[in-house]
Amino acid sequence: MDAFEAISKRRSVRKYRPGEVTRQQLSQIVNLGRLAPTGRNEQPWEFVVITDRTRLRQLARLADYGKFIADASACIVVLCRPTKYHLEDGSAATTQMLIAATALGLGSCWVAGDKKDYAAQVVSLCGAPAHYKLVSLVAVGHAAEIPAPAKRPLDEVLHWETFGAAK
Ligand SMILES: Cc1cc2nc3c(=O)[nH]c(=O)nc-3n(C[C@H](O)[C@H](O)[C@H](O)COP(=O)(O)O)c2cc1C
Questions:
Q1: Which of 11, 57, 76, 162 is paired with 120 by a 20 to 30 Å CA distance?
Q2: Is the CA virtual torsion 127, 130, 132, 136 positive or negative?
Q3: Is the pTM here over 0.85, yes or no?
Q4: CB of 109 closer than 6 angstroms to any ligand 1 atom
Q5: Right CATH number for 3-157 from 3.40.109.10, 3.40.1210.10, 3.50.50.60, 1.10.287.70?
Q6: pLDDT, tens digit (0-9, with 9 covering 90-100), for 116-136
Q7: Which mutation among 8, 10, 12 tests ligand 1's pocket best, with the greatest number of atoms within 8 A of CB?
């Protein structure tokens, strides 16, 4: 699958069926995450991959809109040192990992981390130093259902030269 196809096919998967996702696949996903651009090339991130079912359930309990993490094969927790651009950096890595998972034929979903009351508890559950920031939780697994939410069309969002110019 090339990059165009993987980006086009990616959708947030919130229903998972049982099935193994190998360490090699998870390493491949994190590997593409760590190649994302970062402000000043600071690469402030750490990726904690959780596959233990008890710990997946603990994450699911914390994440108000991430209950499906309990059924995923893995959850990649994206943590960043607090730098000027850590949120952009961690978000860029998150996006690349979602695309990588799609390219491997896996489902995934970005679950919010930043701004959430449970962020500190997730940092602690990961055993990370308390000053680390939770950017996202990335559920990964075999999709039981792939939704297709509507996207705004290109000709509505694309503006040549100036905002509001004739299309
Ligand atoms: C910053 C951010 C936070 C998100 N948090 C959640 C979340 O907590 N739970 C969830 O189910 N989806 C979450 N999503 C996924 C969005 O709901 C999803 O991307 C959006 O509905 C569009 O669907 P698509 O990803 O299938 O294109 C989040 C996405 C982003 C970018």
A1: 11
A2: positive
A3: yes
A4: yes
A5: 3.40.109.10
A6: 999 999 999 999 999 999 999
A7: 12
